[in-house]
Amino acid sequence: MELLQGMGNKEELARMKKKIRYYDVVQIDEAISAKAVDFIESYKLSHGLSIPDAIIGATAVIHQIPIYTYNIRDFDFLPGIILYQTV
């Protein structure tokens, strides 16, 4: 969802869909939901954590998946997160 929502037009969307079809999709489950709620309770007020970023961060932490992002600051305060900055 994060990758798709960032596309600026239908061409970009089509290219992204072709790229991501080779990757596994992790569905949101009870553990991810609970971790995301925990993150919102802990970091919404202090860091401005958004619900989508809480879900992304929770998914990464629960499944021990690194996040590659342009926006390190959106996630770097979450405990247990593995981040790589893309350029």
Question: Would you kindly provide a brief summary of this structure?
Answer:
This protein has about 90 residues and is mainly α. Helices cover about 55% and strands about 5% of the residues. Strands 1-2 form a two-stranded parallel ribbon.
Structure description:
This protein is mostly helical. It has a domain of 59 residues. Helices cover 53% and strands 7% of the residues. The protein contains four helices and two strands, in the order H-H-H-H-E-E. Strands 1-2 form a two-stranded parallel ribbon. The mean pLDDT is 94.
How many helical elements? 4
> Structural class from helices and strands?
mainly alpha
Q: Determine the fraction of residues in helical runs and give it as a percent range.
A: 40-55%
Could you tell me the radius of gyration in angstroms?
14 Å
Oligomer: single chain
Give the total of beta strands: 2
Mean pLDDT across the residues is 94
Distance between the first and last residues' Cα = 20 Å
How are helices and strands ordered from N to C? HHHHEE
The shape, in one word, is: globular
Proportion of β residues?
5-15%
Strand order of the largest sheet: 1-2
Low-confidence stretches: none
Largest sheet: 2 strands, parallel
